[in-house]
Design a protein that fits this description.
heterotrimer, A mainly alpha (239), B mainly alpha (48), C mainly alpha (232), A: 239 residues, C: mainly alpha, 8 helices, 78% helix, globular
């Protein structure tokens, strides 16, 4: 009897996995609209040229990665240690992986902006270094998850690592910031960030919203995957 | 003088699109594979 | 003399755990000697990896010192919980009537002795081989080395206990620990460079402050986190 109910649950999960994911699709539609807006309807900044437009996908992805994905991962990790709900572990796992995708975009688009504007692909600036290390830490986090079979142990270890990572990032930022201020680096063209003209703001904020929607869609899809995977494992262990 | 650096801008937007779409597709594939696994298990249990 | 039926307090228990680990190390001495040899090899290899006529040994030394300290510390940390895996000795340790935090602190204390021991041999060796003027600054330098060692073992002991339980085992420890060592290596190397250049310790204060902050934050965080990693 319980077996049947369990099967039914897994089956409905699997069916919903096959259906159309409207949130994810609207996330991509919104992103496409932003692309159109950036390419044809946003003015080119006079001193930086069209490379300045990279900002609309770079800064917004960075914001989503840091303040949504990794903040969610840290909060879910902390709550997991307190409440011991597997759901929270799956949220942490999912936001880490989706956050990794966003951080990868940040790390690729960043140098593509830096080369024409700063004159160098990479500078060891505090934010760049912290982002790079965050990326490495999340890779380590996901690798560690893959190397533990016991689900409860994996959840506890991951939660601990997730929390310690959240403690570490400010330290990295602080030390690199100090390093930079003591060793000034050559900057070819120092872009200041004055208040953006309205046309640019009308690209920047919608882009931020579109990426947030995309994040929500990807997170939900990844979370569904984790739920189904765990349910399948339970079923295989039961039989 | 507005510098001409459209190449970097195009490359960045292509890279972002490839990563986001590619990641979504990888999720889709992984979900489908699991779904197939579920049907297989359910079918074999129904036979038994 | 304390009552034998009563479980020991957290400090006594930590000391007992540390003494157990140090006794094992004293009897075998394998890991410590391996780490020292590794560190000395590192010192010589780094010297020849640079063109010593182009780069002054003085500029090279702080970086070499801290890269070697971190990597040889990893060798010791690797072993910290590795020895408990044999015959599942860790189960007996966990079943003992002591606080989980005491096990962590004891392990960390033993690791600290290990890392400081390696540093105590490597630092004079480096000064000798690189002709460094460490005479006047030896004490502050030793202080920085101890502060950095505290941060390294605080994080490394926790990750060692986690890593041995994964399929990647020893491969995972450097991957998890090295990002956490970045603030330590940076602050310690910057302080060392200033001390070796004969500048007053006050010049290095902004760096030292971060190092001390790191130590405090991660000793507390890792002590609190350890019990979560050993639950059954």
């Amino acid at each position: 009897m319980t077996d049947r109910i369990q099967h039914h649950g897994v089956d409905s999960l699997a069916t919903s996995a096959r259906g159309t994911d409207w949130i994810l699709l609207s996330g991509f539609a919104a992103l496409a609209a932003v692309y159109v807006r950036v390419i044809w309807f946003t003015p080119i900044e006079a001193s930086q040229g069209s490379a300045q437009k990279i900002l609309y996908v770079h800064a917004t992805s960075a914001f989503v990665a840091l303040y949504l994905a990794f903040a969610l991962m840290a909060v879910a990790s902390a709550l997991y240690l307190w409440l011991r709900d597997e759901t929270l572990d799956r949220v942490a796992e999912s936001s880490a992986e989706v956050g990794l995708a966003f951080t990868t975009v940040v790390l690729i688009t960043g140098p593509l902006w830096g080369k024409p504007i700063w004159g160098a692909w990479w500078t060891w600036d505090a934010r760049l270094t912290a982002t790079l290390f965050l990326w490495l830490l999340i890779l380590g986090y996901l690798l560690m998850r893959g190397a533990i079979d016991d689900r409860a142990m994996r959840a506890r270890f991951s939660a601990v690592l997730g929390l310690l990572t959240a403690l570490l990032i400010p330290f990295i930022h602080l030390t690199v910031y100090l390093f930079r201020t003591m060793h000034p680096m050559p900057i070819v063209l120092k872009p200041s960030q004055p208040s953006m003209p309205p046309e640019m703001q009308w690209t920047f904020f919608p882009s931020f919203l579109a990426l947030t929607l995309l994040f929500a869609g990807l997170l939900r899809a990844r979370y569904r995957y984790a739920t189904l995977r765990d349910a399948v494992l339970d079923m295989e262990n039961a039989s | 003088m507005t510098p001409d650096n459209a190449g970097y801008y195009h490359a960045a937007y292509v890279a972002a699109a490839v990563i986001y779409v590619g990641y979504a597709i990888s999720l889709r594939v992984r979900l489908r594979r699991l779904g197939a696994r579920v049907s297989q298990i359910v079918a074999s249990n129904d036979q038994a | 003399m304390h009552d034998d039926a009563r479980p020991p307090g957290i400090l006594t228990a930590s000391w007992l755990v540390a003494r157990k680990d140090l006794a094992i190390e004293f009897r075998t001495r394998t890991a410590f000697l391996a780490a020292v040899v590794f560190a000395l090899l590192g010192v010589t290899i780094f010297y020849f990896a640079w063109d010593s006529t182009a780069v002054a040994a003085m500029d090279l030394a702080p970086g070499v010192l801290w890269v070697i300290f971190t990597f040889s510390a990893l060798l010791g940390l690797q072993r910290s919980f590795g020895v408990e895996q044999a015959d599942r000795a860790i189960d007996a340790l966990l079943a003992a009537p002591v606080e989980r935090e005491a096990i962590y602190l004891g392990k960390a204390l033993a690791n600290l002795a290990f890392v400081v021991g390696v540093e105590a041999i490597t630092l004079p060796a480096l000064a000798l081989f690189y002709n460094l003027p460490v005479g006047e600054v030896f004490l502050p330098l030793a202080g920085v080395a101890v502060l950095a060692a505290i941060g390294i073992v605080a994080v490394g002991t926790l990750f060692s206990s986690m890593a041995v339980n994964t399929r990647l085992a020893e491969l995972l420890l450097p991957m998890l620990s090295l990002p956490f060592f970045l603030p330590i290596v940076m602050t310690a190397a910057q302080t060392t460079a200033r001390l070796l250049a004969g500048r007053p310790i006050a010049d290095a204060w902004p760096w030292l402050r971060i190092l001390v902050g790191f130590d405090v934050v991660f000793i507390v965080a890792c002590t609190l986190a350890y019990p979560f990693t050993v639950e059954e």
